[in-house]
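Chapter review: from sequence to fold.
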Amino acid sequence: MNNYDAIVVGTGNSGLVSALSLINEGLKVLLLDEHNNIGGTSGYSKIGRFEFGNSIHNLYLGSESVSNYKLGKVLEQCGVYDEIKLSEVPNLFRVITHNHDFIMPFGIEEFTKKLNELVPNSMETVNIFFELALECREAMKYVKENYKNIDYNYLKENYINFLKVSCYSVSKVLDAISMPLEAQEIINSMWVFLGNSETQISFVTYATFLLDLVQYGYSVPTYNNYDISLTLLNSYLERGGELKLNSKVVRILTDDNKVNGVKLEDGTLYYSNNVIVNSSLNNVYGKLLDPSVVPREAFKNVNSRKLGGRTLTVNLGLNRSAEELGLNNYTYLLYQSLDSDVEYSRMKELLSGNQIAIVHNIANKDISPIGTCALSLTTIYFEDCFGEYVENERYFTDVKEISQRLIDVFEKNTKIKITDYIEEMEIVSPVNNAMVNDFPEGCMYGYLLDGNDDMLPRILNKDKEHYIEGLFVCGGFDGDAYNYNSSIISGIDCKDTIMDNIREEENGR
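The C-alpha cell string follows.
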C-alpha cells in the first residue's frame, strides 16, 4: 500500500525543508514533484559559459549568529547548516536615484552613523527606531511561539511599545518619533523587498525585517542557490526519504473535511493524513481540491488577498570582471526617487526602469569564469502587466524593450557601460514564472502585506486558516511573507504543526 505519515508536494526549498525535518522526526515521508528536477525557483540555467540562478536577490542567511538568526536556525535544525558553503556580502545596499547616491553598511552602529552623515541630527530618532525594532522582534518571537495562548498581560508588562506601534504603518511611527523626512526615506529604502510602500506596510513588519539585515548581515551560497536544494535533498534521501519526480499531483484527496492522500496525473494514488503543498493558496484551493469540498471561508480568504510583486529579471553574463567594469557593490537599488508611494505607483507600469541589480561576483568571485561577471537586473510589477501576453504576438518584442530599458537605466544611474560587454543574456518574465512554477499571474512575492492582511494578523489567525484537517501550505505565500526567508521558515512550521498534532493524538489514546 502507498501509505505515508506525510506527503510533500513540490520540491522548492520550503518543501524540501518540510520533508527533511519530518524525516528527522522519524516519519515515513514521500516527496513529489511534477518536474524532472528539484528546487522550484532555486533552479538554475546554463547558457554558454554562465550559470544563472532562477531565484532572485539575496538569501538572508545571517553569518554572525546562527542561533539568533531564524533562517540559519532552521537550516541548523535540519542538520545541514554546516554543509552549505556561504559567501558574505560586504554591505547592505547602494541606492541611486536622480538626487541620491549612497551606500548603507551592516551593523546597527555603523548604519546609524552613516544615516546621521547623510541627514545630520537624525541619530537620536534612528536610535529610537532600532530600540523599537528590537522590542518588536522580541515581541513577535513571543507571539509566534505562543499564538495559540497569548498572555496579553505579559505583553503589556514586557512589550508595551510593541503594542503601541503594532497597528500603525512605518511612516506613521517614524512621523510620531519626529524622524526627519529624508532620514525616513533612506531608512525605508528596502521597502521594495516587502512589496508595499511605507504608508501601507506595518511598522512591525518593516522594522523587524530591516533590523535582522542590519544586525546580522547576509550571505549567499558560494556557488548558486541550487546548492541549498541539493544539500537538503541529499540529506533527505540519506535518511530514507522517498522522492518521485515527473509526478504531477492533480487532486488532493479528502474525506469528511480531512486529507487522506493525493492523486497523480497518471491515476496513481498515495495515501496520508498529512499533505504539505509547496505552492500558493490559489493553486491549492482553486486547482488541487474538488471545489465541492472547499469551505466557503477558504474561498473568501484566498479571494480577499492581493498578490504581491511580479518580477522580470534580465540575467547578464559580461565578458569583463566586476573590477574592470567598476561594479563594486553587491546590491544596487535604482529608483527615480526615494518616495516609496510614488515609486510603488510607477512600478505598475511596464517601463518604470526601477530595479534591484545584483552583481553576483562581489560575494563570490568564482560564480562566473575568470575575467567575467554575472549581473542580474530585476524590475518588480505591482499589477498584472503581463496578463494579456500569454498568447500575444508582441510579447517577445515588448520583453526585449523592457530589458533594454533596464540596461539603459542601470548604465545611466551607475555611469557604468555594460552593453558592449554582454556575452550572454537570459530574460525571465512573469509569464515564465506563471508557466514553469505555476505562480498566479507570475507572482513570486506571495500575498501583498497590506492593512489587516499583514504579518501580525496572519500569525494570530494562522489556526483559523487550516480549513481542511491535515492540509498545509508552505512557500513564499505563507503568513510571514518575508520572501525567501519566509518561504524556508514556513517549511519547518508545517513540520512543527504536524508533530504537535501527532503528539496530541498519542496523548489522547
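Two observations follow directly from the output. Residues 484-508 form the longest helix (25 residues). The chain is about 40% helix and 20% strand.
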